[in-house]
Here is the input.
Amino acid sequence: MPPEPTIERLSRYRRVLAGLAAEGQTHVFSHELAELAHSNGAQVRRDIMLIGHTGSPAKGYAVGDLARAIGKVLDDPATARAVLVGLGNLGRALVDYFSNRGSRFAIAAILDTDESKVGAPYRGCPTFSMERLEEVVAEKKLRLAILTVPAEVAQEAAERLVAAGVTGIVNFAPMTLRLPERVFVEQVDIAAAWEKVGYFARRRRSPRRQGT
Amino acid sequence: MPPEPTIERLSRYRRVLAGLAAEGQTHVFSHELAELAHSNGAQVRRDIMLIGHTGSPAKGYAVGDLARAIGKVLDDPATARAVLVGLGNLGRALVDYFSNRGSRFAIAAILDTDESKVGAPYRGCPTFSMERLEEVVAEKKLRLAILTVPAEVAQEAAERLVAAGVTGIVNFAPMTLRLPERVFVEQVDIAAAWEKVGYFARRRRSPRRQGT
DNA sequence: AAGTGTGAACCCCTTCACAGCA
DNA sequence: TGCTGTGAAGGGGTTCACACTT
Here is the structure.
């Protein structure tokens, strides 16, 4: 299984490839892709090797083929849909973000404690009371959750999600979740991102990978 | 200079420490802090050692002292203020996020191309036309920017920010920025986060650091 | 007895460098 | 000639393990 950094880069590569395809470009060399995705040639070749895809010395990598090969690794029907928990400002922004792009991503359900927010769909996504969390997650067979609730209630919400069958969480709450090892949590910590950028912007530190 | 992962963890530690302080706890042992911040004892001790702080075998680390020591490393007046570029849904959510908490973070200016959005302050933050980017950044001496514009215009906006004096960017646009090496860019890639969680949630992979 | 501080070992990701190939 | 595929080397962050301290 490819390491975590490789998975992140593959995601970036695919986005770049989509752009190239839109411009009608059919092939790329590793150093070109590297340039566009802020990586380097050796890394690109190694990543592509890890997913069992190959190119040719003459033409490089076929844009469409490579994108499909990445899709085979990253995409899966089970994780294309997620439940969004917490329809505050950030929650709404995320629903919009993923609705706007006829994309691979779908918010299959939205949960919120505020009864006045639920009932009518938001941006086409069905909304439900937080009380129905277990029921909704189970019936829709959801495995991924996006947490945009206040920090105080994040842990409880996460536990209920996991109990209901969720195995992956993207957590926007500024709170470290304590969950079983088998659950994969990606913490999107906006305040930490700010502090980190502030720190490294002060002292110019070179080795940078513009990562997530 | 501490490595990047350490800076991220210090940010998490401080948040945990704030919680402990609020509960009136005065000391923590490394393994306790590790538990709460999803790390491990050796890592915590190493991180704390790297910033030149020490504890005692008898009582562990003094909560307040450690928080202040972390603050000395992370905090700096120059990076406590940032300009937010792009007042869409996500931009608004971030302004709210940072305004709500009488926090260390301040949005000193908001820029947008939509003239109807600018002029009147939003959540107390002054708003300006995108045309005045250079002027605003220079006059307010801003060094950090938060980019929440569409991908198509992210590169241009970033270049103008850098030319105006910005040295650190938190980029929410799904787009790899190509900027001079001295500029520190933190990519917050929401789609990539989803794909990554989807991937690792499928196969239960163990070694996880719940990082950013 | 239990925890800190830290040299040293370890591990994993990255980068090098070059054989093989078009 | 120039690029891919990849073994091998390298580098940097993490973890071990233990002397030292209370």
User: Anything to note?
Assistant: Chain B touches chain A through 71 residues (CB under 8 Å). The longest strand of chain B covers residues 106-112. Strands of chain B lie at 27-28, 61-62, 81-85, 106-112, 127-129, 144-147, 168-171, 184-187. The helical segments of chain B are 4-22, 30-37, 41-50, 63-74, 89-100, 133-139, 151-164, 190-202.
